[in-house]
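Duplicate of earlier report; Calcium/sodium antiporter input re-posted below.
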Amino acid sequence: MISFLILIAGLALLLFAGDYLVRGAVSLAEKLGISPLVIGLTIVAFGTSAPELLVSLKAAFTGVYGIAIGNVVGSNIANVLLVLGAPALIAPIACKEKGIGFSLFIMALLTVVLMTMMGSGILDHVDGLILLLILIFFLSWQFIRARRDRVTAALGGDYHDELDELPAENSRIAAYLLFGLIGLPVGASLTVNGAVDIARVFGVSETIIGLTIVAIGTSLPELVTTVMAAWRGSGAVAIGNVVGSNIFNMAAILGITSLVHPLYVPSHIVHIDMWIMAITSALLILWSLLGKSITRVHGVVMLALFVTYVVAVF
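Output:
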């Protein structure tokens, strides 16, 4: 029970600290006159991935590679089946977001590259560098396209819709930043320690905990965002959010983590879970290419598949 409470406290602290860090950083950037485009491509994008990054880094340095990698693989699976399936119960999710084609290509490329890397059993410094180079290429293309087309809404201009309240006073901005910078590493430590303790108590591997409990917990920000967007009738942006999140999970989180510390890939992920991640990514790409909406019936099926996956993993 104590381990569960520690894990829940860690996940809650990660969510709140990451949110406050993004709000404080965005407010500071606006005060310094940084453009919305740059804010969207850097601060918001990386800030919302901070919980997963801190968890993976903490897990890597403590030798719990199942959580470090399972967190990302499980999050990508949850992003498609759970994060898109749940809001579809509220309203159909349109899959026709403008300019999504290149992002889908990068997600597919990263999935293939990452699976090839994980097949060797280890993600080393060279692998991390390659993943980060792909991310830099992707962000550069987004920046050039936005400057050319002046499409800033989809790449950073809409962050105010996701951040309901931004601090205005310097003291509040400093407090938000301080809470985020302190809360994230503390939350990551609590999350990893709690997850490891639960795994030991119940006799399951850290990989299973990383693929399920930790992955779902760190996917909560995306889930809340898409559910609220569907509730407000703006479900069309959900596909873009999920594709972007999956790209950052693979390229930024595993890229940075493996560049800092080599990651040994558990055989369970190599033989089963990374293939499920690939299948869910392929389904997302197919949906987007066909331009079909994700209906309530699809949502029910997706949630049922996700529950089945979690049960099967355990």
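Residues 2-313 form a domain with the A middle domain of Talin 1 fold (CATH 1.20.1420.30).

Merging into the original ticket.
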